[in-house]
Amino acid sequence: MPPVLEARNISKRFQGTQALRDVSFSLEKGEVHALMGENGAGKSTLAKVIAGVVIPDEGEILVEGRKVTLNHPLQAQASGIGMVFQELDLFPHLSVAENIAVANPAAHESAVVRKRTLEAWSANFLGQVKLEIRPETLLCNLSIGQVQRVAIARALSLKSRILLLDEPTSSLTEDGVESLFALIEHLKSSGVSFVYVSHKMAEVSRIADRVTVLRDGAFVGTRTARDLTSEELITMMVGRKLDRNERTDRSCGPDLVLEVRGLTTSFLSPIDFHLHAGEVLGIAGLVGAGRSELGAVLFGMRPRTGGVVRLKGKPFAPNSPAEAIQSGLCLLPEDRRWEGIFPQMSVRENASIVILKRLGRGMFQKESQKVAEFQTKLAVSAAPETAISNLSGGNQQKIVLARWLLADPAVLFLDDPTRGIDVAAKEEIYKIIDELAVQGKGVILVSSELPELWRCCDRILVLQEGRQAGIVETKDSSQEEVMQLATGIASSVA
Questions:
Q1: What band does 114 get if pLDDT is binned at 50, 70 and 90?
Q2: Taking the chain, what is the end-to-end CA distance rounded to the nearest angstrom?
Q3: What are phi and psi of 417, to 5 degrees?
Q4: How far is CA 130 from CA 25, 101, 255, in A?
Q5: Max Cα–Cα distance, the chain, nearest Å
Q6: CA 259 to CA 313: how far, in whole Å?
């Protein structure tokens, strides 16, 4: 019996970058086949070729032994192939039901849209992904984790037999991941096959049947997941043994760089914390707990309704991101596609956009030098004039991080900075966080991964449904304690 999907000798070049080089891949019925590799290895490009989003320069695709032409996503959908993208391709100002139904043959669209019928139809698929929201809710009012589940619901509504999931858990907390895994197992039993693109080795070892590794656009190997150790997988991905760095020994200075007292918004209840020079403060909580809301209000993107904030000892109440940046607080947003990058601009322009006024005479030469320095530091090999939209998601994230490193803020708020980042790049970002702390910067780190918070942070502020559930010292607490606070099981800790 032929594989349900087979890609043969796929090659693709973007400008001067060879994204895929003679790559072959197969998927069996009812299988979860993981695609892994470093940022820029070609994983997402291969998935997009299979989904009809990218047309390969060479190679062919077969579905159940039959050669198919996939030059458009509609052709892939007609062949039973659906894709949930890492950078979600939905419409923020349409409702959840409308996002599931738009351009969806299964929705039986007509000139007259019957709202209640549409909402009832979409509610079934929301139930499948365990998303308890009203179908008429506008997408822009959801968290990114909720939006991701809407995208999965849409793919299910297309009756896809092959689902391509590109970093599907990148914005989900542990409970959301477990829900997704249960859904995948259920769909596997009914014959649905999955191509699962992920950087998370623990996830892959749990959910995948086989693993294929790409490196620099080329095929490295395919292994049975249960027979593959994490060290072997890392070696296949990076071509060397990875030197995992431990947290740099450091001590917080006596000076406070940020003081927050009684901060409230339309969603957040009074938030109280302080941040010392050289300290890394983690922010933990489930999806929708208010982690990103806190960053947005500090960065001048959301109005506050009460409270006092002081930055470097001075009152701090920015009305815009520009005011926040000028005062010395910068935010790396959770959603790089909607809030982080300028997709039509180059790598150089995206990195330097906030510092141009500071450069003065010889601006263009200084700009190029500084951007090149941080590209080297963050291991982004793309040419500076390459459009940032042509980079992998992980490399886009590195360029946004370079932007804020160039701005040299007193406080850097990092909202899930390693989302969609491979294991080697994570280590690079952890090292940069350590360096910032040693330099006396204040760092606030939001993460959905508790081990990451323990690796990087001195203390962790836990949010639960918009309120402050507690602050814990990482050296004196456990991940279980944080989860109890985040879920409301435990009492608040001062």
A1: confident
A2: 61
A3: -70, -20
A4: 31, 18, 45
A5: 70
A6: 8
Q: How far apart are CA 316 and CA 319, in angstroms?
A: 10
Phi-psi sector, 440: left (phi>0), alpha (psi -120 to 50), beta: left
Alpha carbon distance 335, 321 (integer Å): 16
Q: What is the dihedral of CA 17, 19, 22, 24, to 10 degrees?
A: 180
- Any idea which residue has 């990875």 for tokens? 242
Residue range 13-59, pLDDT digits in tens? 887 678 899 999 999 999 999 999 877 788 989 999 999 999 999 99
Number of other residues whose CB lies within 10 A of the CB of residue 330: 22
User: Which pLDDT score, from 0 to 100, does residue 339 have?
Assistant: 77
Of 184, 230, 214, nearest to 423 by C-alpha is: 230
The percent of residues above 70 in pLDDT, for the chain, comes to 91
> Whole-structure pTM over 0.70, yes or no?
no
Q: 190 φ, ψ to 5°?
A: -95, 10
Token duo for residue 283: 């922010």
CA distance 249 to 369: 31
**pLDDT over 50 (residue 111):** no
Q: What are phi and psi of 283, to 5 degrees?
A: -125, 120
Task: State the Cα–Cα distance between residues 38 and 42, nearest whole angstrom.
Answer: 9
Q: CA-CA distance, 149 to 101, in Å (whole number)? A: 15
Helix (H) or strand (E) segment spanning residue 148: helix 144-157
Please check the confidence at residue 319 and state whether its pLDDT lies above 60.
yes
Give dist(CA 34, CA 19) in Å, integer.
Answer: 18
**Of all helices (H) and strands (E), which one includes residue 402?**
helix 393-407
Q: Which amino acid is at 445?
A: L
Q: Percent of the chain at pLDDT above 90?
A: 43
How far is the C-alpha of 294 from the C-alpha of 149, rounded, in Å?
23
What's the pLDDT tens digit per position in 272-298?
A: 999 999 999 999 987 778 999 999 999
Question: Is residue 493's pLDDT more than 50?
Answer: no
Report which DSSP code applies to 346.
B
Whole-angstrom distance, CA of residue 222 vs CA of residue 214: 9
Beta strands in 191-284 (DSSP E): 193-197, 210-215, 218-224, 256-264, 271-276, 280-284
* DSSP state, residue 389: G
Task: Give the pLDDT band of residue 243 (cuts 50, 70, 90).
Answer: low
pLDDT given at position 411 = 97
